[in-house]
Amino acid sequence: MKNLELKRISNEIRKGILTAVHSAKAGHPGGSLSSADIMTYLYFSEMNIDPSKPNMPQRDRFVLSKGHVAPGLYATLAHRGFFPVEDLVTLRQLGSYLQGHPDMKNIPGVDMSTGSLGQGISAAVGMALSAKLSGEDYRVYTLLGDGEIEEGQVWEAAMFAGHRKLDNLVVIIDNNGLQIDGNIENVCSPYPIDKKFEAFNFHVIQVDGHDFESLAYAFENARLIKNKPVAIIAKTVKGKGVSFMENNAAWHGTAPNDEQYEIGMSDLAKVGEAICQ
User: Fold this and answer.
1) Is the four-CA dihedral 103, 68, 5, 205 of positive or negative sign?
2) Are 11 and 275 in contact (CB under 8 A)?
3) How many Å apart are CA 144 and CA 176, to the nearest integer?
4) Which of 22, 101, 173, 202 is disulfide-compatible with 115, CB 3.0–4.6 A?
């Protein structure tokens, strides 16, 4: 898929994120918006998936380790055809299948229930190991927050993945620099992220997480790496696309009110117009 079309899709996904969180009056827009381009590339260019067969055994797997950015995953799945886009407004509503965190039992396209930070990568490592043991060729992708990697379980999983040479595993770090309590460097710095993953026998690729050419380069190169898992460190902007949310930790887990929603949707409409020119 051409980069221009990917930009258009990711902008629609951002609109879906904002709409879902506004409707729910709760949720996590900041990290959903920062990772929207990454999830767009995964679901529209990279992964072997089929929305009409969400559980096909040979599909690639995706684990949203930072499960609180479920609005981003749901908007991506909806636009990819796993369920109706119109259902996004039911996020966190009583009786809705779109819960506040991903639920693999009830949401088409969700490969793992997540929410407790640090645990998703362990599940992804298990999936990758399973593929190796059973001789399957599917690949496993997992998206982590840069604040999330302060969790010790992340590094236990990384140690195991590197030791077992799981070259069918791609760990993506959404490096937007902010977590719920502020700047990650001030809370509990995970830097240098690249050296840490290299120490666990990962091949590391650093990219601009909003540039589709860079993302294509990263994921294409990840497929060429043998006998090592890959860590893609994607530099992003928290709240990307919405003027008052960008680089503002206050929007980690805050829903916009009606006026803010209108401003945000206007911002994204302007982005869409620029893409079409």
Assistant:
1) negative
2) yes
3) 11
4) 101
